[in-house]
Amino acid sequence: INAEYGEEEEEQEEEETVPRNDKENERPGPTTVSNQNLRLHRLKESRKAYGILEREKMRERARASEHRAHVQQLRAQTEKDRQLAEALVNQAIMKCKAEPPEKREAEMEKRIQKTVKRNKKISSQSERLIKRLRSKIANSPDLDLPALCPCDPDVLKTGPGLCARNCSYHDNPKAFAQALSSLLACYQS
Question: What is the pLDDT of residues 25-35, one digit of tens each?
């Protein structure tokens, strides 16, 4: 744009060097027409530039407005979820306060007994599985199985109760039975 203005200014300077008489000042001549054209051109370019800037500002405002609306919607949803969770907790608290403490203690005892019973059942099932797998290994003398864990190199001598405390099979008969069965399945194939 500066190059264009520079060229037009040079043309203007050349036109001004032309001698003028008083009659030319009364009528629009080539000099005044080119000045008007230059001013109009500059005005047109500045309006165009400001129009582009205004449109970009409007787009930015629209994006910001959409973002604010989205954030507000998320905040409202989060607040609604929090209030719902708080109401549920308050209901549970009120329900517990309404029940006598003896009933709550009895219910807790029942839950504990159920959990213990389930754990014993799982443990006994795992123990039976381990015994059955050990008998299969003992009846197959040609099987040379590697150690399951670093606690004992002999698979028949190791077990969940015999493993070290940092061993993954320590007091975990279910995991030991699963590992032993998969090891046996791999070597019998």
Answer: 455 555 666 88
